[in-house]
C-alpha cells in the first residue's frame, strides 16, 4: 500500500454497521474483535436482537453483552454518542455500539423506543424480511407499506433520536419510512439491486429517497447480494459502491459488510425451512469480505478515482454525519 494510503487508513474512522451479535453468533464472535481492530476498523455496530427475539430475553442478552464489553476495556469501548466514537478512535480502542434488526424485542410497542435508546440502542430496523405488525419486509410479495403502528414507530423514533434503518424492509415500507421521517434514514447493510437483482438489495428509487433525506447506504459484502454467481470480493463491493456514488454521490455510501463468521448458524437456519431457498439465497457457507481486506478496499477506492474526502466518508464519516444529525443526549429529550 502506498504511504499516503497507509496514512489515510491510520487517520480514518472506519465504521462497520452490521456485526451479528445475537446469541446464535457468539461462538465465533469474540475471536473476531481483534481481527476487526487489527485490520483498522474503529467502530462496530452489533446486532443485539432481531425480529425473532422477544423483549425479556433480548434485554438479558443486551445486559450481559454490555458487561462483556465493559470487561474488555483493553480492546473495546462502548459508544453511546458521536463523541464516544471519536474518543475510542483517539484512544486506539474498538468502539462498540448496538442496534436491533426488527421491532419484536420492543414487543411492537413504540413506548419502549425511549427505554431502549436510554439503554444504548442507537438504531433499529422496523421490519425484517417478512411481515410484522409494523409493515412488510423485503420478501413479502404484496409489498404493502407501513401500518398505522409502523407510522407511530417512525414518529416516536424521531422524537427520541433513534436512527431508522430500512435494510430488510420492503420497498414500499422503506419509502414510507423515509417519507415520514424528519431525520436521515439509513440502509445499514444493503447493496444495489440494479447491480444484483436480489430482494434484499435496494432499488435506485430507494437509494435516491434515502440520499434526498441525507442518509447513507452501507454496502453488504455477502456474495448472494453482489454477483450472479454469488461470489464476493473487493471488486464486487466496489461495483456497488460505484453505482450508488454515481447515482447520488459518495457522501451517501458506507460500509455494512456483514461478514458472516457464524456460518454454522446460517446453515441451520437455511436448512430449517424452504423460505431462504425460495427467495434466492444459496446454501451457506456464503462468500463475503473479511475485515483483513480493508486495506485492499482503500486501494480500490483510490484506483477508482475517489479523493481523500470521499474515501474517509465511505469508510465511516458518512455514518458519523447521520448519527450526529439524529442521536440526542438524554437531557435534550426529557422535555420533548
TrEMBL record:
<protein>
    <submittedName>
        <fullName>Membrane dipeptidase</fullName>
    </submittedName>
</protein>
<dbReference type="GO" id="GO:0006508">
    <property type="term" value="P:proteolysis"/>
</dbReference>
<dbReference type="InterPro" id="IPR008257">
    <property type="entry name" value="Pept_M19"/>
</dbReference>
<dbReference type="Pfam" id="PF01244">
    <property type="entry name" value="Peptidase_M19"/>
</dbReference>
<dbReference type="InterPro" id="IPR032466">
    <property type="entry name" value="Metal_Hydrolase"/>
</dbReference>
<dbReference type="GO" id="GO:0070573">
    <property type="term" value="F:metallodipeptidase activity"/>
</dbReference>
Amino acid at each position: 500500500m502506498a504511504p499516503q494510503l497507509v496514512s489515510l487508513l491510520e487517520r480514518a474512522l472506519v465504521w462497520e454497521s452490521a456485526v451479528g451479535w445475537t446469541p446464535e453468533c457468539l461462538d465465533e464472535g469474540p475471536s473476531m474483535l481483534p481481527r476487526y481492530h487489527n485490520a483498522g476498523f474503529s467502530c462496530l455496530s452489533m446486532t443485539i436482537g432481531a425480529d425473532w427475539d422477544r423483549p425479556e430475553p433480548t434485554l438479558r442478552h443486551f445486559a450481559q453483552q454490555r458487561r462483556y464489553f465493559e470487561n474488555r476495556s483493553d480492546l473495546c469501548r462502548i459508544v453511546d454518542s458521536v463523541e464516544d466514537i471519536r474518543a475510542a478512535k483517539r484512544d486506539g480502542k474498538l468502539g462498540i455500539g448496538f442496534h436491533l434488526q426488527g421491532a419484536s424485542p420492543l414487543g411492537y410497542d413504540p413506548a419502549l423506543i425511549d427505554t431502549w435508546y436510554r439503554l444504548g440502542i442507537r438504531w433499529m430496523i422496523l421490519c425484517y424480511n417478512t411481515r410484522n405488525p409494523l409493515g412488510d419486509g423485503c420478501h413479502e410479495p404484496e409489498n404493502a407499506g407501513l401500518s398505522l403502528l409502523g407510522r407511530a414507530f417512525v414518529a416516536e423514533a424521531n422524537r427520541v433520536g433513534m436512527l431508522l434503518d430500512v435494510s430488510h424492509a420492503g420497498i414500499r415500507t422503506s419509502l414510507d419510512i423515509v417519507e415520514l421521517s424528519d431525520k436521515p434514514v439509513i440502509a445499514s447493510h444493503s447493496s444495489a439491486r440494479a447491480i444484483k437483482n436480489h430482494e434484499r438489495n435496494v432499488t435506485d428509487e430507494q437509494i435516491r429517497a434515502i440520499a434526498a433525506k441525507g442518509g447513507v447506504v452501507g454496502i453488504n459484502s455477502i456474495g448472494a447480494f453482489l454477483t450472479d454467481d454469488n461470489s464476493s470480493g473487493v471488486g464486487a463491493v466496489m461495483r456497488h459502491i460505484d453505482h450508488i456514488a454515481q447515482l447520488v454521490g459518495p457522501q451517501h455510501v458506507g460500509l455494512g459488510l456483514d461478514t458472516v463468521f457464524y456460518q454454522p448458524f446460517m446453515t441451520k437456519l437455511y436448512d430449517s425451512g424452504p423460505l431462504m431457498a425460495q427467495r434466492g439465497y444459496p446454501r451457506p457457507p456464503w462468500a463475503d469480505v473479511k475485515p483483513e481486506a480493508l486495506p485492499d478496499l482503500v486501494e480500490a477506492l483510490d484506483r477508482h478515482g475517489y479523493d481523500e474526502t470521499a474515501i474517509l466518508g465511505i469508510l465511516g464519516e458518512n455514518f458519523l454525519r447521520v448519527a450526529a444529525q439524529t442521536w440526542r443526549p438524554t437531557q435534550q429529550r426529557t422535555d420533548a
